[in-house]
Please model this.
Amino acid sequence: MKILAIGTLQPLSPEQQQTFMPQEVPATLQVYLNGKIEQFWFRSDMKGPIFLMEVTSVDEANSILESLPLGNAKLLSFELMPVGPLIPLGLLIQ
Model:
């Protein structure tokens, strides 16, 4: 199952940045290396990351994201949207 996870990051103080970012980046990269994040971007409005995830359920995606340091600290939240093929395109090949 593919999930589009759109993150919203709370404003971080310089102290929070120094505390969380050295942990957040390697933890996120590990999720990527584990195959749960396929692609990632940063929102152009600078409000947080967007991940395309490959998971078994929305609950699994939520659990993974909440276990990351910023998610665990409630400083980063995600809107999770299951996505899939554009089924109506099948009408064009019938």
Strands lie at 2-9, 37-42, 49-54, 76-83. The chain has one domain: 2-93. The chain has three helices and four strands.
